[in-house]
Amino acid sequence: MSRPIRAIIDLAALRHNFAIARRHAGTARLWSVVKANAYGHGLELIVQSLAEITDGFALIELERAVQLRKAGLDLPILMLEGFYAADELPLFVEHRLIPVLHKIEQIQVLLDAGWPSTLPVYLKLDTGMHRLGFDAAGLKAAQVALAGKVGQQTLMTHFADADGPRGVDWQLERFCAMTAGIDDPCSFANSAALLRYPHARGDWVRPGIMLYGGSPFPQMKSAAELGLQPVMTLQSEIIAVQTLATGESAGYGCTFTADRTLRIGVVACGYADGYPCQAPTGTPVLVDGLRSRTLGRVSMDKLCVDLTHLPEKVGIGGTATLWGRAGDKVLPADEVATAVGTISYELFCALAPRVPVDAIN
Ligand SMILES: *Cc1c(COP(=O)(O)O)cnc(C)c1O
Predict the structure, then answer these.
(1) Please, which residues have CB within 8 angstroms of residue 351's CB and are 6 or more apart in sequence?
(2) 157: Cβ below 6 Å to ligand 1?
(3) Which helix (H) or strand (E) covers residue 242, if one does?
């Protein structure tokens, strides 16, 4: 027997979530965002499962994009941060990777490298996120420099608060002002905008987290309310059971002390598996599908859960679901993330390489 922890990737749920994104996209085409190893779900697995139904894939990592081409993927690939240095450009050309250009310095590098005039590029406009992108003057300069020297240009912007109170209209207004008189195709919506603002799609949308079954705004609407299903389940087993007398503690730092006799289970899952170290006592967990809570500090390879209120038969060998699906029960990653003070994106991306991954259809 090997260590009982595993991540189970539910590809039927992935395709279900994609269908929801497709429905919200209307006539817009979809970049399925698969950066960061498909948000920790496994790039090859996710790409294989979506290749028949998506319009393209968007990611950050050049070596992973090349790997997809070498595996035979023929769909468009969008590189969300473009390129960082000139020596990457031959691979962009060879593998038909579409760079997102976001600063004027990149334009000269692109042209000096002999970019083929048939290959498309994206131009990223900064409409308020203030990370990457051209301002109005920069866009004009870029378009003058690129005229006739590249293929189809698409204008893209990224929303800063599509999941929050400011929404998207303030950025769309800036976008329209910056691009008056230009009729290139455009790409706007991330998951939050796709689900909240039908007018903020553009010609191409870029859903990420919703494909993986996370809500982009869990405090407003849960994944279930959005019709999304969890794709990743992180589960392990109880490998030891302890009885804690009143006044005893479990785990490093003795951060938790039993106020009565407690039965606790020790689960083979810790922060070296990607479970968040900062999870406080009380973080939700399912044990044999029944709700429970973590106790004490998370260790590198283990964490403790409360069994006191559960039937006596729940013990060694019991299944602990850290997030995802347990039979007909679901513990949303969003709920765990909220208890920990983070977002589901971070939980998914943190899944450690030592955790074996099983795919189910
Ligand atoms: C990551 C990313 C997305 C996807 O965002 P989600 O919130 O996961 O839907 C879209 N566009 C860009 C530019 C990104 O970097």
Answers:
(1) 7, 40, 41, 232, 234, 273, 274
(2) no
(3) strand 232-244
Residues labelled catalytic:
35, 252
Which residue has a Cα nearest atom 6 of ligand 1? 208
Question: What distance in angstroms lies between residue 159's CA and the mean position of ligand 1's atoms?
Answer: 9
Give the mean pLDDT of the chain: 97
Domains of the chain: 11-212 (3.20.20.10), 232-360 (2.40.37.10)
Asked if residue 158 has its Cβ within 6 Å of ligand 1, the reply is yes
Q: pLDDT tens digits, residue range 240-254?
A: 999 999 999 999 999
Q: Which atom of ligand 1 is nearest to the CA of 60?
A: 15
Determine if ligand 1 sits within 6 Å of the CB of residue 207.
yes
Distance (Å, rounded) from C-alpha 235 to C-alpha 269? 8
Which of 101, 122, 206 to mutate to test ligand 1, by most ligand atoms within 8 A of the CB atom? Answer: 206
Work out the percent of the chain whose per-residue pLDDT is above 90: 99
- Give the pLDDT confidence score for residue 16 in this predicted structure: 98
**347 exposure class (CB count in 10 Å sphere: 0-12, 13-18, 19+):** buried
Chain-centroid distance, C-alpha 281: 26
Q: What is the pTM of this model?
A: 0.97
Of the pLDDT bands very low, low, confident and very high (cuts 50, 70, 90), residue 295 is: very high
pLDDT in tens, 110-147: 999 999 999 999 999 999 999 999 999 999 999 999 99
Banded model confidence at residue 235, pLDDT cuts 50, 70, 90: very high
Rounded distance from Cα 31 to ligand 1 centre (Å) = 10
Residue with tokens 């990743």: 232
Residue 264 near ligand 1, beta carbon < 6 Å = no
For 332-349, what is the mean pLDDT? 98
Q: What CA–CA distance (Å, rounded) separates 353 from 1?
A: 19
Question: Distance between CA 135 and CA 124 in Å, rounded?
Answer: 9
Query: Left, alpha or beta for 85 (phi > 0: left; psi -120 to 50: alpha)?
Result: beta
Which of 127, 80, 84, 81 minimizes the C-alpha distance to 105?
A: 84
User: Ligand 1 in contact with 206 (CB < 6 A)?
Assistant: yes
